[in-house]
Amino acid sequence: MKHLSLQDFKRCLARVPAAVDISFSGYSEPWLNPACTEMVEHAYACGHGIRLFTTLIGMNGRDLRRLRALQLRVFLVHVFDDGTHMDSGLVRRNYVDLMRQLVDADISSLLFIVMGEVHPELLGIIPDEALVRSRPRSRAGNGEKMVGARQPIVGALTCPDERQYRNVLLPNGDVTFCCMDFERRHILGNLLRDRYKDLFEGAAFYNIADRMNGTDGFLLCRSCEFAEPTTSEC
Fold first, then answer.
1. How far apart are CA 53 and CA 73, in angstroms?
2. What stretch of H or E contains 22?
3. Are 191 and 173 in contact (CB under 8 A)?
4. Segment 137-164, tens digit of pLDDT
5. How far apart are CA 9 and CA 169, in angstroms?
6. pTM to 2 decimals?
7. What is the CB neighbour count within 10 angstroms for residue 109?
8. How far lies 209's CA from each of 158, 199, 219, 223, in Å?
9. What is the radius of gyration, based on Cα positions, of the chain?
10. DSSP assignment of 91-152, as one string?
11. 63 within 8 A of 31, measured Cβ to Cβ
């Protein structure tokens, strides 16, 4: 299945409490799904807080106008760099025009992040005060590696960002542990059949929790740069 359908998205979202924020991010560019803007609008209408993480690829001016009508908690744009880490060939005239429209849209939650140097065509468009510079990520040592993975953590560890509750919904309804789990090693359940709370009460989640507490066994977090070792107190 190439895309999550709007119908299945609505079925899955109906199982998620409104108090849970919905992030449009994950393993790929959200707006490569042609129904993405309608999904955002539906989740917003259901009372969820909305967080967007996007390069803008796949988005158009009509999408942007619809998004402007919403109160978004986060609208973070991953800015194309000079080609060191990203495919700079995707920065074409329509993309540059859309970036100008976005900057002029006066969206209060709007931020930009870049790894390396901003693409030459985007210089002078993005306000310096809204631009965050970041280093490349190892993606927990799996997927397409941008930098080398960290030395694995031995023993108990914690995730300061609590990414164990920032899960990813796949087109077939499966829910993976977090956005670093590109190889889908930790599947918590399936929202087309399971209740939301079951994701955190099943064997898969309990195994992850046990291993975060120091139990032996594979755990993606051990190679993730966001994880921190837990030091025991005497």
1. 11
2. strand 22-24
3. yes
4. 555 545 454 455 668 899 999 988 787 7
5. 9
6. 0.88
7. 14
8. 10, 12, 10, 16
9. 19
10. --HHHHHHHHHHHTT--TTEEEEEESSBPGGGTTTS-GGGEEEE----GGG-SS-SSPPPPP
11. yes
